[in-house]
Amino acid sequence: MTERTPLLHYRLAASRQPQKLSVFFGVVIPTLLSMFSVVVFLRIGFVVGQAGLCQGIAMFLVAYFIICMTVLSVCAISTNGALDAGGAYYMISRALGPEFGGSIGIMFFLANVCGCALFVLGLVEAVVATFGIPEDGVVLSASQVLPSGYWYSLLYATAIALLCLLVCLVGAHIYAKATFLIFLVVMVVLGTIFISFFAVGPRTITLPSSSSPTPNLTGPAFPTTANFTGFKLETLLGNLWAEYTVDYTTGTMMTFATVFAVMFNGCTGIMAGSNMSGELKNPSYSIPRGTITAVIFTFIIYNLLCVLVACSCDRVLLQRDYSFLRDINIWHPLVTIGVYCSTLSAAMSNLIGASRILYALARDDLFGKVLSPAKKTSHSGNPWASVLISWFLVQLVLFSGKLNTIASIVTIFFLLVYAAVDVACLALEWASAPNFRPTFRYFTWHTCVLGIVGCAVMMFLINAIYASASIAFMLLLLLLIHYLSPTSSWGYISQALIFHQVRKYLLMLDVRKDHVKFWRPQILLMVSNPRSSVGLITFINDIKKSGLYVLGHVQLGDLNTLPSDPLQSQYDSWLSLVDHLNIKAFVNLTLADSVRHGIQHLLFISGLGGMRPNTLVLGFYDDSFPRDMLIDPSMSTIQCLDHSDPSPPFDQNPPLFHFSPLRVSSERQDCGEFGDGKALGPQEYVAVIADAMKMLKNVVLARYFNGFDRSEFLSPSFFSPGKRAVYVDVWPVNLLRPDSSSYVDTCSLFLLQLACVLNMVRAWRKAKLRLFLCVEEGQSVRGSEEKLGQLLKELRIKAQVYPVPWDQQERAEEEEEEEYVNSFPSNATRLSDNYLLAVNQLILTTAQPAPAVRFLYLPRPPADTRRYATYLRQLELLTQDLGPTLLIHGVTPVITTDL
């Protein structure tokens, strides 16, 4: 008994599930009735009478061509996976992402709300025209019993909207049954119309009185009667070509564009079946077959009616009586019944479509708690709360009181949605994603483009102002959702398109075509623990000059001894850090047995094609104590001043940062910027520098950036009148080998280039470059200064040159060896600590006021690896207490004076 209980529960649960709709009831009937609406009964004669048979058929061909392009896109998307409630919104949002999906969803929801009100008002107008008492009080028929006026019309519209509400509240099945009955009535009426053309003999029909004045007082008056001639060649020839005239209901002159706009209103509605996606047994099967069937059927009916009308009705009858089908029908009330039924069905279709879209939007939480009430459903799954909200908005629109007030905007909203469906299909096709493989294959990117162009042209043809306003409103919604909505798990088509295009352009980026005048820094910054490297990471983001920027990290370990790759779980934290600091950087992590080998890996493999790092940046190796800048309140303003996107303050530790805490001891570390002192020794650190130079990579060592706060220097107050200026100092000479110094060697020019790049960044543009010219005693200071100034002019670098004389006598008192007094040192190995400290003091005392950043010349490491520790100590003494300093060594030409 217990084994059978789960099966019993399953059967009971299945029996309680509402039955799903088939292709015919769920797609064909709603789409047919939405596309017919009132046009088939009241506007066929208008189209043929104004445009003639040839242009009329041409209009239907163009309109259905536009529609068919969109239908192909709908069929393709709907057969590419499982569909849920929401119809076009669901398809667009899952294809293009939440921003486009949400904005188009709101537009489609509003279109259906206004469409429902449109058809309700149309039905009210038809009812008042038949049963309403004329405003002048003259009753011409016993059926005219209903009072008329604005408030009475609003009362009738409210009653009709309540009827639609009751049907939709009961559920989709009652709606399907109601529409089926309406469908039968409409089909019977259409059948009698076709029969009437053959069964009814020629007759004279009294034309309705005109609401527009006579074009001129001396011209002929409008006729009062017209003929139904039956099938005659003479009648066909008279209706063959266009004869645009004044519309007797509005008094405006008709043109091809105005007639086409009116006719196109009857061709929209192809999404009625798609809106029922949540109620269908098999949406991927039903939507393509049902929609295509309905489109073909309506196209045939419209064109047959055009031919029959053109062969049997005088041009005057078609132009002066839009309800002539009622007068030539075998039973006059049938056409009136058809008009009532089609408009009622279209109103219900739009109301239930709006409710399903609103329910899907609420369930996706794109607008937070604003739409949360719309999530409520009945036991059978009917979203009754969404139905009530949609009905309430329809009721508000009904206060407009006039059908023509909202007709154009409704059509434009629908066309905008159709264009969005085409865009979604086009994007999926162009992205070439392997998972886009719809079972419906009768489409190409050409059909999508034609659909987009057709919808756009129609929108502006109908009303350019409304079209522009609706597009602007959609873009506003798109930006709102982009900044407010949470990240979705639907996938973003933009990422697929970017991948596709980037791959294509990377293949085109040929390294053999590189030229020095287009050089830009492409930087690999090695970071051990980001908690102590915030200042350096943000500064290097400024100096990259639109180049590649990679944050590299080496984790020590052996994959053979680990159950899984430990790096995969760390990427989210690193990417969150990139977002938090608002920088434009990639992240590259590697696992290695040593830091040196890990950096070699990253230098070899980072980047792709022509986008590969050409500069390695390391934090300095010294005893400075690391500070955790991700939680330090004093660094809360470290975020870039030129970015408008606010990021969380640093005193609030973001939950996604799972970086290990910093050590609190005073053991030797890499300025908290590069590596763990236990993982990397001074010998290996210098070996990393030597390795990078062997690989022809430029090297930058950054010292004292642990507490660097760019906003301290670059805040607007410092550039205000009376405030101190900000300086960037450049010492383009090898201070460890001043006897061999040259301002035109590769390394010196690289220093100048990087300083110029920093000065070109918007935030640093007002900083002043100071270039220090070291002049040996006996040299011409003025000549050296003029020579360097000419070089800067040729290089287009704006900087102030400051000559710095080398005082040998002062240095002689500090040197321990007598031979060192009379000449510059010729070998770095012979440098004493006193000399290095003297140079350090020279830099400190010469450059006043203190600069924001210093650029110094980094000499090559010695060939003898035993001298690595001495080399590192020399760099440490040289840069002691200098503040934020970059030691730079360039190995490749990066600057040119040629055009």
Automatic annotation (TrEMBL):
Protein name in the entry: Solute carrier family 12 member 9
Top-level taxon of the source organism: Eukaryota
Gene source species: Takifugu rubripes (Japanese pufferfish)
Localization in the cell: Membrane
GO annotation, cellular component aspect: membrane
Transmembrane portions of the chain: 21-45, 57-83, 104-129, 149-172, 179-200, 253-273, 294-317, 337-362, 383-400, 406-431, 443-465, 471-493
GO MF terms held by the record: potassium:chloride symporter activity
One GO biological process term: potassium ion homeostasis
Similarity annotation: Belongs to the SLC12A transporter family.
Keyword terms of this UniProt record: Membrane, Transmembrane, Transmembrane helix, Transport
Residue span(s) of domain Amino acid permease/ SLC12A: 26-524
Record-annotated SLC12A transporter C-terminal domain positions: 536-623
InterPro entries: AA-permease/SLC12A_dom, SLC12_C, SLC12A_fam
Membrane topology (UniProt): Multi-pass membrane protein
